[in-house]
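In response to the reviewer comment on reproducibility (Comment 2.3), we provide here a single inverse folding case reported in full, input and output, so that an independent group could reproduce the run without further information from us. The structure tokens appear first.
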């Protein structure tokens, strides 16, 4: 946790305008939750490049800051890794 990560992956699904899931076979479990502080523009299955910091995901601790909404879509990520994006590029 706390490591910097830059990755390019396909958007698997959008949860909210500040949270989405990417899919890549090189990821542990194949997916990773990405959090942004501003509205993101990707849509599944667009390709994105994300640069950010790996954190341990806690819906309770992060919900207000990232406007996550209901905890239901995040249950699979609770206690696992997530990426807080500092830079996001959506490939057209």
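Designed residues, in position order:
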């Amino acid at each position: 946790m706390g490591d910097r990560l830059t990755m390019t992956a396909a958007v698997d699904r959008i949860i909210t305008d500040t949270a989405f899931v990417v899919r890549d076979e090189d990821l542990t479990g194949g997916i990773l939750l990405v959090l942004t502080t501003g509205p993101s523009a990707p849509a599944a299955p667009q390709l994105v490049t994300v640069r950010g910091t790996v954190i341990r995901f806690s819906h309770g601790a992060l919900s207000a800051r990232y406007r996550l909404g209901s905890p239901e879509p995040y249950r699979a990520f609770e206690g696992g890794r997530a990426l807080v994006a500092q830079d996001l590029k959506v490939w057209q």
